[in-house]
Amino acid sequence: MSEQRVTLITGTRKGIGRFLAEHYAAQGHRVVGCSRQAPDWEHANYTHVAADVTDEGQVKDLFARVRKDFGRLDHLINNAGIASMNHSLLTPYATVRRVMDTNLGGTFLFSREAAKFMQRAKYGRIVNFTTVAVPLKLEGEAAYVASKAAVQSLTQVMARELAQFGITINAIGPVPIETDLIRAIPKDKIASLIERQAIKRLGTCEDVANVCDFFLKPESAFVTGQMIFLGGV
Amino acid sequence: MKDQLLPFIVETARSIAEEQGIDVSKELNDSTRLFGEGGLLDSLALVSLVIAVEQGIEERFGVRVEIADDKALSQKNSPYRTIGSLAAYAAQELEAKKAAG
To answer: Where is the Ketoreductase domain (chain A) (predicted)?
Structure first.
């Protein structure tokens, strides 16, 4: 078994996922990342696996590979997610299903397979992604917000189910961060959202990594089922 | 197939029970009750056993089976009742998966 801590991160091709992958690779973790398409970056401590987080067979293949190549899994960061910015009355059902499949389904599949792996070692850290749009009940994102509310419930229930195995599972709720996910949102909408935060600025990838670091710490063994929202929301 | 799986399940149940500090001085066989009254394992150890059996089957036979599916939990006679019933159920799922290619 590898001496190196193994950190699995979903959605690492760009944005926050890429930042976190490079952040933990730089700290000496063996980082395994995935996305449907190959990334245009690399790192000595990083292994990329092409996988669709909603495809159960591909997800299981990925875990089989981690088991075979590294023999351990310490951390899972369920970063992969998609948004849909639209009024509920204008949202196609196919979009709702796609958003639920990726955000809830993908998080469920990875958490389940990771916990099966981690329970043997009686140790594991899982970090999920919610959003401040859940507590803010943000209009214009019904499908996205509902999918993330489901991720919060999943996090809280799994926290109780996995506690006996020494596995913690928590979620981080970022404010808008300059990534592709928010590029399509009108500037005035972002400004009004920031106005509802205690600390009025866009978030950064460093802000997200800081909360992730806290959840992943071995000393955070007594912290589970918790949501930490950025910006004082 | 069940006979092939039985020794592996007995050994896995024994090692998981030992890990959990459960007394396994008695002989484990086909009719050993896994859970419930007089059962060998608590619910935590039972979950670990089911996962270990799934992983063991994948490693030995190269076939992915799900013995922890809804069907397994809803059957009146739970397939997790005894070591023998778990082996029979796992064998049935393994053969179904093999037949499906």
So the answer is: 5-175
Quick check: A70 pLDDT over 90?
yes
The helix/strand/coil state of A6 is: strand
Find the CATH number of the domain harbouring B72: 1.10.1200.10
Task: State which residues form the domain around B30.
Answer: 2-99
**Alpha carbon of B51: minimum distance to chain A alpha carbons (Å):** 6
Q: Of the candidates A21, A80, A18, which has an alpha carbon nearest to the alpha carbon of residue A53?
A: A80
Residues 17-56 of B with CB under 8 A from A: 44, 47-48, 51-52, 54-55
Mean pLDDT of B71-89: 81
Q: How many distinct structural domains can be found in chain A?
A: 1
Identify the pLDDT of residue A180.
67
Predicted ipTM > 0.85 = no
Read off the CATH number of the domain in which A98 is found: 3.40.50.720
Quickly tell me which residue has 């000595």 as its tokens: A44
The CA-atom distances, in angstroms, between B90 and each of A139, B46, B66 are 48, 14, 8
In a domain, A23, yes or no: yes
pLDDT at A201: 94
Q: Are B84 and B6 in contact (CB under 8 A)?
A: yes
What is the Cα–Cα distance from A218 to A124, expressed in whole angstroms?
9
* Enclosing domain of residue A86: 6-232
Condensed to tens digits (0 to 9), the pLDDT of residues B33-69 reads 998 778 899 888 888 999 999 999 998 999 988 887 7
CB contact under 8 A, B47 and A119: yes
Rounded distance between C-alpha atoms, residue A128 and residue A229, angstroms: 12
Number of domains observed in the structure of chain B = 1
Residue A192 lies in a domain: yes
A1 lies in some domain: no
Tokens of A219: 């000393």
Query: A119 in contact with B at a CB cutoff of 8 Å?
Result: yes
**CB spacing of B52 vs A64 below 8 angstroms:** no
Q: Label residue B100 by pLDDT band (50, 70, 90).
A: confident
